[in-house]
Amino acid sequence: MKPVLVTGASGFVGWHVARLLTEKGWRVRALVRPASQLRELDVERLDGDLRDAGSLERATAGCGAVFHVAADYRLWTKHPDEMYRSNVEGTRNLLTAARRNGVERVVYTSTVGCIGFEHGKLANEDSPVNLDQMAGHYKRSKFLAEAEALQFTREGFPVVIVNPTAPVGDHDFKPTPTGKTIVDFLRGEMPAYLDTGLNLVDVRSVAAGHLLAFEKGEAGERYVLGCENLTLQQILERIGAQSNRKAPTIQIPYAVAYLAALASTGWAELSGKEPRVPLEAVKMAGKKMWVSCDKAKRELGYEPTSVDAALKRAVDWFQGNGYC
Q: pTM to 2 decimals?
């Protein structure tokens, strides 16, 4: 069996994708930056960078498939050009190397933020959207990276796109913005909430969805990998139930949160330190990011598991690993 390359295996979703593949008996090669740690994974490590064509040639050589999960996922950066180099140019570089080395199929991990959201409606893969609707550099860079993947498909190279919602669970090392919400709650740093909403999903279901996309997905198609649409208040109540802590009962007006984010992000631009309240996060909270994952269920056989169980694993993992 040819090895399969996973990018981003040192991160949250990529770690779970790599672990699932090894459990299924695949030979996994992980492309990671030299300073990154690969914890609790039985994989072949290859140091490299999405911006380095040479390392991508070595990483894809001899591989039968690629799961491109890696991304620069930040809601604020003082140097946004770095994000575009990793997310857009890096995706183009990787797909170029994979095609040149005869890789048979690629699964590209995008984000639910790249689909269209209209107030009061459930979004899906076909909801109208354009680049101007992408709030912030992360979403814009991922939207442009999707365009790169679709262009390769039009040229005959098979790339399947998955759009995870907000994964939760164990081994959220960094943590992700959703994981940071859980950590902040556990630290007692979430005294109030905004009237917004997310679709939560067990990260293990997201990993399973990647494998289903590889096996059954159609090249050039997108598949939303989600589970349960919840308001932020409901999410905090769920976390409270799993951690035996009281959820906040005060709702912050959006205008107040926006002004706080302007001030916090403005200071970050001057100081170079990450803002406590990123403006991009507050802009994203302006819409309830609620979706349907019926297409993935229908075409891939995707069946997400319990969000509550995933939140419990997240709480236990963060508490057991010194995050709070």
A: 0.94
